[in-house]
Amino acid sequence: MIYKKDANFPYPILSNHAQSYVNSIFELDVDVMENNDTYRFTIKHDIGSEFIKRLIALNKAELILIIQSKDSKFYRLKEQEIEVSKSRVSLDQKTSLQLHIQALTDISFHDNQDLSQFYDQFKEDIKVNKFNLLAYSNVVTFDAPYQKPFDLFEKKLDEHMKKDIKIEVGQATINIYYRKPEYQFHTLPKSQYLNHPYIYIGLTKALQQFIMNNGEDGEVELKTVEPVSELENKLLDLMQSKMIDELTVDNIDDVIYEITDNIIEKYVRSVEEMVANGD
Amino acid sequence: MEIKLLKDGYKNIESLYEDFKADMIAENEEYFSEESVYIDQTPSFPIYIAKGSTEHKKKEFLEAFNTVTHSYLSLDRSILLSEHFWHSFLLIYKRNYIIGKYPEVLDNENKFKNIVLKKLDWENYIYKIILGAQYIADYINNEDQRQRYFGLIIDNLDLYNYIIKYEIFRNDDFLINILDIIDELGLSEILKAKIKGREDLGDDERYGRRVIFELNKSYPIVLSPMLSKDDLKDIFIEYLGYYYDVSDIKS
Q1: What is the mean pLDDT of each run of 10 residues along chain B (251 residues)?
Q2: How many domains does one find in chain A?
Q3: Cβ distance B62 to B150 under 8 Å?
Q4: Which helix (H) or strand (E) holds A98?
Q5: Which residues in chain A have their CB less than 8 angstroms from residue B219's CB?
Q6: Structure ipTM
Q7: Which domain holds residue A161?
Q8: Do B77 and A89 touch (CB under 8 A)?
Q9: Which domain of life is it from (chain B) (predicted)?
């Protein structure tokens, strides 16, 4: 269980709330990235006690990451990164993560120099049993919904255009101009999906421009670029959140597949369905 | 195939039950959202296993565990544990199966709600089946062993229900450890028995439930979901000892 309450423990505990330690800090920070199948959590933590850190280094205590979403997953944290299949964990507003530190042997606190003064008199007698909790961190939650690729687009009507459609890479969004409202299929069911080919073209154009503005020899190393426009920043965030490291003229289609949610399949199914229904 | 999702608020649409009976949901665009999900296989499986003999229920559970394991476990959790998805799927795509297997849903709306529109939590059979199937199938690869563990869940259903009721114990390692402990020590009958002569406890208290209750009470000081089977076994027997004479149980 994610532990939020300030409970009374029968021995000193390290947390951001308790007062048992002089430097009462156990901070957790989590970055999450995803591709179509997995989430990758990158875990950073800050422990305010050398005593506890030493126990971990000596294998007398261990860090446990808890991911709670529908159920509880416990991971012994050996490395900074943890990958979990999307078929085993989902991220929504109710998902929360926390780090615990568990004792792996009976631990005496007699040489714990990090405790607050209050314990000076009797820390000789404090002993924490094997498997008991030594510390718990703050809880990390995922309140903000993920950025969806469609936030990148703006659809507009321009009846004065000579052409039927214009797809333009703007400062903050990719703009799709239609000459007539019906070109958006707005009278048909699933009109959103029927516009997916335009979305695809728009993304292709924007990514090509991204390479021209930021790349060398048609290649961009994503971790080194500092894009100037708001749109390019959105694209960069999106690509990095999907674990993409490199954008090149050759992998544009792969990148689009990763950063979107099956847009072509949805398009095809919608058309098939309309044909089947005789619409 | 594509599974279209119902519009938010579908549960409150007054005509829902009548339209289900008359088979008029699938036809009516008004019920649908713009959203849909795609899944490869959609075999039917028992979604309500509360009636009939013990033997019959056991058979139904096994069929459900196996079907879910083979056809549904690779779905993203955001679909697999979505009530919105299951209600849409059952109402629109599994109507014939439901009416054939649970004709009582046509008798009155309460039965319909209890079988088809039930909240997706630990009391819902679909939920019990998904978690059990996932926890066992992820850890146990041998087919015979899987069937044995599914059987252990079914034989210890009261305790299983109690385990998945608590969020912290909804966990693969913990479930498998507990099933192993029960099996090794032959505790199944004891754990499901009612506790007698303890007026201080509730009416329907059982030994197994109390052990889980004690484990929950001592968490997180004792991080029981992270314990190895043998370490958990000692604590399990200790807590059972609060209610039952454990001197004959070998650890």
Answers
A1: 91 94 92 88 96 95 98 93 96 96 96 96 96 95 97 96 93 96 95 85 86 91 90 95 86 56
A2: 2
A3: yes
A4: strand A96-103
A5: 1
A6: 0.86
A7: 149-277
A8: yes
A9: Bacteria
